[in-house]
Amino acid sequence: MSVSLIAVDVDGTLINSEGRVTDETKEAFREATKAGIHLALGTGRARDECTPILKQLPELRYMINCSGASVYDIALEKELYVEGIPMEIIRRCYEILKDIPVYLFEPMIDGHVYADRKRMEHLSEFQDHYYIETVRSTRTPTDIEALLETRMEPVPRLHLFFPNHETQERARKLLEPVGLPILNSIPENLELNMPTANKGLGLRRLAEYLNVPLENCMAIGDNLNDADMLKAAGYPVLVANAHADVLQYGKYRTKSCDEDGVAHAIRHVLNGTVEAMRKEQ
Predict the structure, then answer these.
(1) Could you read off the pLDDT of 213-224 as tens digits, one per residue?
(2) Domain harbouring 243, CATH code
(3) Which residue from 60, 99, 254, 277 has the highest number of Cβ atoms inside 10 Å of its Cβ?
């Protein structure tokens, strides 16, 4: 078997702990493209949030966004697949969290991330994290309550961003009765999708679109929101900094996100030495 499609998680996988895409990773993406390998992001982020990454990695052609609720062809500017959360559930989530004073309630719609303009003024109260700059530069400010009152169409994903991990855990417990899968990609966020929307389904949809068998797909991740994508791929790869709860889903290991782990895995694909990663810890 050979790898024809590589789907890469972003936070904790593609970018390092400083939030950067390294030169080594950029070069590996260029080499993979020249070799005819399809490259995709497999992320919880919406399209707007991926803009800084796309500027650094122009070779990227596809995105699995919103934890699998959206699949997008960048070159054609075309959404290939979308599955959304009904607005009555979104409104219920907002009501449940009304007693948490400082956090961002962020519906992701048509590739944009909407955040309440008044709540954005409280970002200085959040624990320092590279993701805060992503929030500042990619959000579309709005009146969230007005949006919730007027919008009728489903929302691909609901993203929640909290000032610290303790508040995130409190919110997770409050939201459990809603019955949606609740995942996170960093300690301060939560990601809600429909039960039928996940990165694994997104990878399946993209593989079908490209006519690539799943056994010829590689998925690289680090956290539980990557589990379905790892399970779907013929080559499930974990970075060395992967969360303990996701270790069971990775047959292969690469270096950490701070050691160019994604570039390291891509080079194994290009060199025909993927099986060597079974032994690397």
Answers:
(1) 999 999 999 999
(2) 3.40.50.1000
(3) 254
